[in-house]
Amino acid sequence: MAKNATIYKNILVIEDNHAILDVITLILQSEAYKVSGLNKSADMMDHIQAFNPDLMILDIMLPDGDGRELLTQIRTNKKTANIPVLMISAKYTAATIKHGEYKPNGFLAKPFDIDDLLDKIEGILAGKTY
Predict the structure, then answer these.
(1) Sign of the CA dihedral 16, 22, 26, 29?
(2) Which residues form the Response regulatory domain (predicted)?
(3) What is the CATH number of the domain that holds 25?
């Protein structure tokens, strides 16, 4: 899967586990993505505006919020409504996750395989939904 090195995609990762955030960041950077990470949701909307992500990876269980509620904020704001979102969770699986009114573009249960993560990101950036 060769990537065009001149086109950098911005990925915003919101994950409260520093080890997981670091691993995702390193992997994505090694694949030539530009990555910004947050470990809580507090300044999410300001951060989205400043970083202008092409895709967001959003953990469901955050210390200061539920990723599903954050997804609703993202989807109901004109400026952010079309940003693709990949949700991740250690608590839920694809079978047990209960999404709210808005569904993410993809979902991955933790622990996940790095190749699955990269495949989903590439697919979502190409317009697929999982």
Answers:
(1) positive
(2) 10-125
(3) 3.40.50.2300
